[in-house]
From TrEMBL, chain A:
<dbReference type="Pfam" id="PF00582">
    <property type="entry name" value="Usp"/>
</dbReference>
<dbReference type="InterPro" id="IPR006015">
    <property type="entry name" value="Universal_stress_UspA"/>
</dbReference>
<dbReference type="InterPro" id="IPR006016">
    <property type="entry name" value="UspA"/>
</dbReference>
<comment type="similarity">
    <text>Belongs to the universal stress protein A family.</text>
</comment>
<feature type="domain" description="UspA">
    <location>
        <begin position="1"/>
        <end position="144"/>
    </location>
</feature>
<protein>
    <submittedName>
        <fullName>Universal stress protein</fullName>
    </submittedName>
</protein>
<dbReference type="InterPro" id="IPR014729">
    <property type="entry name" value="Rossmann-like_a/b/a_fold"/>
</dbReference>
TrEMBL record, chain B:
<feature type="transmembrane region" description="Helical">
    <location>
        <begin position="346"/>
        <end position="366"/>
    </location>
</feature>
<feature type="transmembrane region" description="Helical">
    <location>
        <begin position="184"/>
        <end position="205"/>
    </location>
</feature>
<feature type="transmembrane region" description="Helical">
    <location>
        <begin position="54"/>
        <end position="75"/>
    </location>
</feature>
<feature type="transmembrane region" description="Helical">
    <location>
        <begin position="225"/>
        <end position="244"/>
    </location>
</feature>
<feature type="transmembrane region" description="Helical">
    <location>
        <begin position="282"/>
        <end position="305"/>
    </location>
</feature>
<feature type="transmembrane region" description="Helical">
    <location>
        <begin position="256"/>
        <end position="276"/>
    </location>
</feature>
<keyword id="KW-0997">Cell inner membrane</keyword>
<keyword id="KW-0732">Signal</keyword>
<keyword id="KW-1003">Cell membrane</keyword>
């Protein structure tokens, strides 16, 4: 079975660097890539009545936005790279969900980007990289 | 545009409110008009059973709770552990992450019910019915769990899911769709009637009463000042949230309110720990009082009536409001939300109300005759004599202050926040009923929301007794309509439950964790 690399991806520059790195890695090893977009979510957060009623609608919108605005362009761009890429959109705690996805897909390594600057991406790739280092069950590459 | 409407409304009220406060005439006129036209209805809803001082509406709710308890084979005992597993997410499909979880539906529904009933209502019950009222309150809460189970299962089963993904649920939907499914006539009329009562109940018990009590509590801490100031402030914030769409405020409240609830329980536990040597004694008083009354008027029945009444008023089981909040949950099995909803009266009444009652009994704010051990009855006020002859929030406040002198300030903040979150919940319930009758649409919705905010100002500005009585009567009218519907539809819930339990046993429904 060919190797599988899970890449944490949210469309940020750091995530793109991580993906570029993973694509080269995959090309040299003949591996495939699982592009994992995790939307931060806790089932224990509090929502108002209105948000409860609209939750299913919002979720559909979030998923389709992630697919069309973030994942599709990247998949299109990498179509000629010779690497087989599958994309996944999941809800949960970023680092934990990446570990779960790695387990479910039988991956052999993980790649995530790191954006040292804070900002929105830091929410995912600042702490995510750090947490992942602590909890990863596989070799894990952090791309600066 | 919206803000201009509000500014104009505020200006209108500001200009008339001081006059309103000075001229008791207008107040009295409104009271009189209301009393003349609605008094008979209020009297009917709160009428006592012949020869007792037990209102039939409280009995109506308790009997319903008993019937559902037996019909579903003590689901609240047999299903309790399963309920907790469901809330923990043990049976939630991980692929449904990002949808409304059981925990979220429960938390939102709880933030609508936990509030003044748990703080003020309990104090009223204990001061009139003695410590024994606590025992009957707990019993009523335990049975009320079966009522919530029934209404929330139906709420999920018959909700409307629209093509865009939004969800609407509640008694009006199970009345129309459920009645049709069983071949019963009158579902549409039931639904309309329920919605009318819900709108009026939302403006009253879910709004004016809350605003009124919030102002009373603030005035108690800050010193007396005109009620319209509280009213305009509260209305402004509610307006910003429900019309202006300032979700951040709502989100802050939703985070603070559960925290307040937990904090209230922790403080109560601390007080109980400090007085640990008296806990057994307090339970003894509660048990003894439950069957003897310990000196309260009416003895045993006096305690029973107060306990039953306050439990029904606090956890809203049977009123139908919870079915609206619970119906948005993501689940393939409607019964699972019924299981989760039965925790609501447990947390609200059995845990939080009992804490308040224990603290009031233990701290000794109720005067006891040292010779007989019976409570001193103040016949003039019709309740047990207390220091300063207070009741309601002030009695609870006094009890907690015995151990933690700074607590009244915190309690005042908690009461205002609880009142605020209850208002937000009821503005939503009222809106759902409103759009059910008048149809959806931006303008129609804004009209209701503006009316709702206007009533906040009225509620805190004036002591409109008859108006508030009338709105309370509306709240319980919801229960009359809703419980009849529950009786007619309970075989459907039974079918759902039996099928679910069978598949749970056979392993067809499995845990994900």
């Amino acid at each position: 079975m060919p190797d599988r690399i899970v890449v944490g991806f949210d469309g940020s520059p750091a995530a793109r660097r991580a993906l570029d790195f993973a694509v080269k890695l995959a090309q040299s090893q003949g591996a495939s890539i699982v592009l994992a977009y995790v939307l931060e979510w806790s089932p224990y957060s509090f929502l108002s009545n209105e948000e409860l009623a609209e939750r299913h609608k919002r979720r559909k919108e979030e998923v389709s936005r992630a697919q069309t605005a973030v994942l599709d362009p990247v998949l299109e761009k990498l179509a000629g790279s010779g690497v087989s890429i599958e994309a996944q959109i999941r809800y949960g705690h970023s680092a934990e969900m990446l570990v779960t996805i790695a387990r479910d897909t039988g991956a052999t390594q993980m790649v995530v980007g790191r954006d040292g600057n804070g900002g929105l991406a830091a929410r995912m790739f600042g702490s995510t990289a750090g947490t992942l280092v602590q909890i990863a069950t596989l070799p894990c590459t952090i791309v600066p | 545009m919206i803000f201009r409407i509000f500014a104009a409304l505020t200006a209108l009220v500001l200009s008339s409110a001081p006059a309103l406060a000075q001229e008791a005439g207008l107040d009295a006129t409104i009271n009189q008009i209301f009393a003349d036209y609605t008094g008979w209805y209020v009297a009917l809803i709160f009428a006592d059973l012949p020869g007792t001082n037990f209102s039939w509406i409280a009995l109506w709710l308790v009997v319903a709770a008993l019937i559902f308890t037996f019909y579903f084979g003590f689901i609240q005992l047999k299903g309790f552990v399963h309920s907790i597993r469901l809330v923990r997410g043990d049976y939630s499909d991980p692929n449904d992450a990002g949808e409304v979880s059981h925990f979220q539906a429960l938390a939102t529904a709880l933030s609508g019910t936990v509030g003044l009933g748990n703080i003020a209502g309990v104090a009223v019950a204990v001061s009139i019915g003695g410590p024994g009222a606590t025992f009957w309150m707990i019993i009523a809460g335990l049975f009320g769990m079966a009522t919530k189970f029934t209404e929330c299962t139906l709420g999920v089963k018959y909700r409307n899911e629209y093509p865009d993904g939004t969800v609407s649920g509640g008694p009006m939907y199970y009345m129309t769709k459920g009645f049709r499914e069983r071949g019963l006539p009158g579902g549409g009329a039931f639904a309309i009637l329920f919605c009318i009562f819900t709108i009026l109940g939302a403006l009253g018990g879910g709004n004016m009463f809350q605003a009124n009590q919030a102002h009373a509590q603030l005035a108690g801490v800050l010193g007396d000042y005109p009620g319209w100031i509280t009213g305009v402030l509260l209305a402004g914030v509610v307006f910003a949230v429900i019309v202006g769409g300032l979700r951040s405020i709502a989100r802050v409240t939703e985070k603070v309110v559960p925290f307040m609830g937990i904090f209230y329980v922790i403080v109560s536990i601390i007080i109980l720990i400090v007085n640990y040597d008296e806990i057994l004694w307090a339970f003894g008083r509660i048990l003894e009082g439950a069957f003897t009354g310990l000196g309260v008027l009416g003895g045993f029945t006096g305690a029973l009536i107060q306990g039953f009444r306050r439990a029904a008023f606090s956890n809203e089981a049977g009123i139908g409001s919870a079915a609206i909040a619970h119906s948005a949950v993501r689940t393939k099995e409607p019964v699972t939300e019924g299981y989760v909803a039965l925790l609501e009266p447990f947390i609200d009444t059995v845990v939080i109300c009992t804490m308040t009652a224990l603290v009031i009994v233990i701290t000794g704010v109720l005067n006891v005759d040292p010779e007989t051990g019976l409570y001193v009855w103040n016949a003039e006020l019709g309740r047990i004599a207390t220091e300063g002859d207070v009741t309601g929030v002030e009695l609870t406040s006094a009890a907690y202050a015995q151990v933690l002198p700074w607590f009244p300030v915190l309690l005042a903040i908690a009461v205002v926040l609880f009142a605020f979150s209850t208002m937000l919940s009821w503005s939503y319930y009222g809106l759902k009923a409103w759009t059910y009758i008048f149809g959806e649409g931006k303008v129609k919705e804004v009209i209701f929301k503006v009316i709702f905010c206007f009533f906040i100002i009225i509620g805190s500005a004036a002591s409109l007794g008859p108006v508030i009585d009338f709105s309370d009567a509306m709240l319980f009218s919801m229960a009359v309509v809703n419980v009849i519907a529950l009786y007619l539809l309970m075989p459907i819930v039974r079918g759902e439950l039996d099928s679910y339990v069978r598949r749970l046993r056979s392993g067809e429904i499995k845990k994900y964790v």
